[in-house]
Amino acid sequence: MKLSILGCYSATPRTLNNTTSQVLEINNHMFLIDCGEGTQVQLRKHKIKFNRIKHVFISHLHGDHFFGLVGLISTFRLLTREADLHVYGPKGIKEVVTLQMKLADSWTNYNLIFHELTSKTSELIFEDEKVEVHTIPLNHRVYTNGFLFKEKEGLRKLNITAVQEANINVAYYRKLSQGFDIENEDGIIIKNETVTKPGPKPKSYAFCSDTMYKEDIIPIIQNTNVLYHESTFLEQHAHLAVKTKHATAKEAATIARKANVETLILGHYSTRYGNIETFKEEASEVFDNVELAEDGKTFEF
Amino acid sequence: MKLSILGCYSATPRTLNNTTSQVLEINNHMFLIDCGEGTQVQLRKHKIKFNRIKHVFISHLHGDHFFGLVGLISTFRLLTREADLHVYGPKGIKEVVTLQMKLADSWTNYNLIFHELTSKTSELIFEDEKVEVHTIPLNHRVYTNGFLFKEKEGLRKLNITAVQEANINVAYYRKLSQGFDIENEDGIIIKNETVTKPGPKPKSYAFCSDTMYKEDIIPIIQNTNVLYHESTFLEQHAHLAVKTKHATAKEAATIARKANVETLILGHYSTRYGNIETFKEEASEVFDNVELAEDGKTFEF
């Protein structure tokens, strides 16, 4: 699982700070999460192949999270993309993209499929053999979802020596890796766990931005490997966090601790603070394993 | 008159190439012309004060000329702008900006005034004491206007020695500078041109992008000081220019020559060409004074 931070600052793009966008590589998928203005250029800088992106998840319709979307869609068309593109985001996202295409008298030559979100409870919005994506309803000034990306439980690993000693027919090996108990050649039921080991532990990543402190999300993100939680402010500006429905570094850390995640990544910093290390310091008082998102930074888990 | 090129490449923003946007400084105005994605960051890089921009002119609603507009408007709001902002552009521009504001549940705290353009003939769209702006109807795949920025004829300069010798009352000096003939203290009519000289020659700038070769624009831009004319292609791809309704460097130069402009600036290059010097070489065969727009370049006239 690899996370590339294309941008992680709040409000407006600046000379050195990009607004929110990140790419999560998980089980051969390249999921684009949020798409602030300039995201397509950031993708180029990161040498991320446009065609590998087939799914875009937009948390909410504030400009710093989606003003780059229509440009990306338009550039995909100019580059004669053929692969389908799925866009998940709040209701209205289809209309705004469609209107801009109409005004430019153009449309995509690839399938552009919108999945408009309106649910106020967590829902499964994408699933294939190996990965699931669930929404995480957040509490911000407009309708906002975070996203939980979860690998599914993988196949169990066979202990070949033990399997052979147990005299199990090779035709059942697939069933064994799927966790079933098997009747061997002698008619004896072999308990699965005596001849297999668990496969690699499934990884999970939760993206929560923008949101104020919201304990309701804890059951959804419980035990997640990596949590990206916005921390627009430090505690000294907690009143602004409440007013603008954002979170502080301490609040993000509190969520991380209560949800028992392994790693917390902070981001969506207000540019009022000179040095983002102060976010880490504040969060580290509550939670041990804190990382700082930075534009251009890549995390591998 | 100062022209700052924020971006001058066609189609899509890239790591090193920005799409169309420029700032024309003329008679204390800062006119923003077109606003491709990333323009607000380019403005920051150029250290152009956001508050000095009060008028934005959008040629057409293709993304590479206007996808940065909503972000700019939104950033102006976040920075608590108070000054009015006038936006001139094709019909539809108001709806698309308004829809995005509505979806973000926000609106500007300053006056945002749209001037939607639909005329197929040149019209005066802005005028104050010193400057006029006219549209230049172009021929592109969608409704498109270029813009002609013209200083008005300035006040004439008084030859003080001659004025005093002519025995003209000081009360008439203003009339003299406005070009009127004046009756002197002895009741004799003094011809204006015998005691004044013309003021500084008014400057003019014509922006023509995007368009295919269109001779109809020549009377509108005749004798302009500086013409920016798109040259997406070289003559070797003239067939593509026709197909996509763009111009070649040679065609831009032909317009410049026929319109008798002083300086031609080329831009809106397709990124298929490695070296933009070839555009200048091609145009220089037809017209002498050719300049190349480049991102970050400033011209003073």
Q: CATH homologous superfamily of the largest domain in chain A, by name?
A: Ribonuclease Z/Hydroxyacylglutathione hydrolase-like
How many domain regions of chain A?
2
Radius of gyration of chain A, CA atoms, in whole angstroms = 22 Å
CATH class of the largest domain in chain A: Alpha Beta
**How does the helix and strand content of chain A classify structurally?**
alpha/beta
Order of helices and strands of chain A: EEEHEHHEHEEEEEHHEEEEHEHHEHEE
Which chains have the largest interface?
A: A-B, 35 and 35 residues
Number of strands of chain A: 18
**What is the global morphology of chain A?**
globular
According to CATH, the fold-level topology of the largest domain in chain A is Metallo-beta-lactamase, Chain A
Order of strands across the main sheet of chain A: 6-5-4-3-2-1-18
Overall helicity of chain A = 10-25%
**Assigned CATH architecture of the largest domain in chain A:** 4-Layer Sandwich
Strand proportion of chain A = 25-35%
Helix segment count of chain A? 10
Summed over residues and divided by their number, the pLDDT of chain A gives a mean of 96
List the helices and strands and how they pair.
2 copies of one chain form a homodimer.
Chain A: E1 2-7, E2 21-26, E3 29-33, H1 39-45, E4 53-57, H2 63-66, H3 69-78, E5 85-90, H4 93-103, E6 112-117, E7 124-127, E8 131-137, E9 145-151, E10 157-158, H5 160-165, H6 173-177, E11 182-183, E12 189-190, E13 196-197, E14 204-208, H7 218-221, E15 226-230, H8 238-244, H9 249-258, E16 263-267, H10 277-284, E17 290-292, E18 298-300
Parallel strand pairs in A: 3-4, 4-5, 5-6, 14-15, 15-16, 16-17
Antiparallel strand pairs in A: 1-2, 1-18, 2-3, 7-8, 8-9, 9-14, 10-13, 11-12
Helix pairs in contact in A: 9-10
